[in-house]
């Protein structure tokens, strides 16, 4: 038993070592990735329910590493988020998204911001400067944040969101329903858009609970005059249920996968999904 115990400890230690080493590698690689031009943005259409008009695109970052291949943001964003790398990466994302946006006829770009970026000192001034110095109207720039970003300092977040709104930025609450928002605070915050988390859309057909949550979010959003975007629409039956439920906007693989800037430009000019 003792031997087995020791063995287990060793296995555990080694896998810890392994994961720490991997982390460090990613961290090290990532800091060079921006300079070496290894990051890319892809754009996923956000469409209006009725005629599938493309009203915006969500920008999603990709790391094409010669060493590791395509690294998912789900892997490297949390690592970047634990260091100051997130700021450098985030600034690159803003600049790149703004450049692409300028080629589109009227759509907005929706950019993800991690909690640490959002809580950065003078976040508002920073974003305003980057967006407006490029000559882009904040009305075409949507800031996507999660509940986590705003709910541990509600007062400060409310102030930041208020200022951003005053400057004309669009604000979306991402992965809505998975965090800790209270309805009281939702009302206080200046929000343009609620994004229903993919897990609810996915569960809709199977579980009464998920369907009920989706319906509630749609009603809440409508009652408060917000756009509601359902994420992760993968099937035609999800599309139909969401339309029936009155969901105003849709995003997901069934409609369109994230695409490169060139394909997004073509689609932006077409204006509608075929
Ligand atoms: P998210 O903000 O919730 O983004 C939606 C994710 O769902 C994207 O994954 C997208 O490709 C994927 N997706 C879209 N439609 C479907 C669908 O129909 N089915 C399924 N199964 N998935 C779908 P992605 O690009 O891997 O991004 C993962 C996460 O990484 C994002 O989740 C976001 O939290 C983060 N992220 C991505 N780009 C950035 C960025 O530029 N900055 C920051 N801070 N975070 C980012
Ligand atoms: Ca998002
Ligand atoms: Ca999301
Ligand atoms: Ca998510």
UniProtKB/TrEMBL annotation:
Domain EAL residue range list: 23-272
Highest rank taxon of the organism: Bacteria
Signal peptide segment: none
Name assigned to this protein: Diguanylate cyclase
Organism in which the protein naturally occurs: Sphingomonas hengshuiensis
Full-length numbering of the shown residues: 347 to 620 of 636
């Amino acid at each position: 038993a003792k031997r087995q115990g020791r063995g287990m400890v060793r296995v555990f230690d080694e896998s810890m070592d392994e994961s720490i080493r991997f982390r460090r590698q990613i961290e090290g690689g990532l800091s060079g990735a921006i300079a070496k031009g290894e990051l890319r943005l892809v754009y996923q259409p956000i469409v209006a329910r009725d005629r599938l008009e493309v009203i915006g695109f969500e920008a999603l970052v990709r790391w094409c590493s010669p060493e590791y291949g395509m690294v998912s943001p789900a892997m490297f964003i949390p690592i970047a988020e634990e260091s100051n790398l997130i700021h450098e990466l985030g600034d690159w994302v803003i600049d790149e998204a703004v450049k692409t946006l300028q080629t589109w006829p009227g759509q907005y770009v929706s950019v993800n911001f991690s909690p640490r970026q959002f809580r950065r000192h003078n976040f508002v001034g920073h974003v305003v400067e980057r967006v407006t110095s490029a000559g882009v109207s904040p009305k075409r720039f949507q800031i996507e944040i999660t509940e986590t970003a705003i709910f541990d300092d509600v007062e400060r977040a409310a102030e930041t969101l208020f200022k951003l709104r005053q400057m004309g930025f669009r604000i979306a609450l991402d992965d809505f329903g998975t965090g800790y928002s209270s309805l009281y605070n939702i009302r206080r915050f200046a929000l343009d858009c609620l994004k229903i988390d993919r897990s609810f859309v996915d569960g809709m057909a199977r579980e009464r609970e998920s369907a009920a949550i989706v319906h509630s979010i749609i009603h809440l959003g409508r009652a408060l005059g917000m756009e509601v975007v359902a994420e992760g629409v993968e099937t035609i039956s999800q599309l139909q249920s969401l339309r029936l439920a009155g969901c105003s906007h849709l995003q997901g693989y069934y409609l369109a996968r994230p695409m490169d800037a060139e394909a997004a430009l073509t689609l932006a000019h077409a204006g509608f999904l075929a």
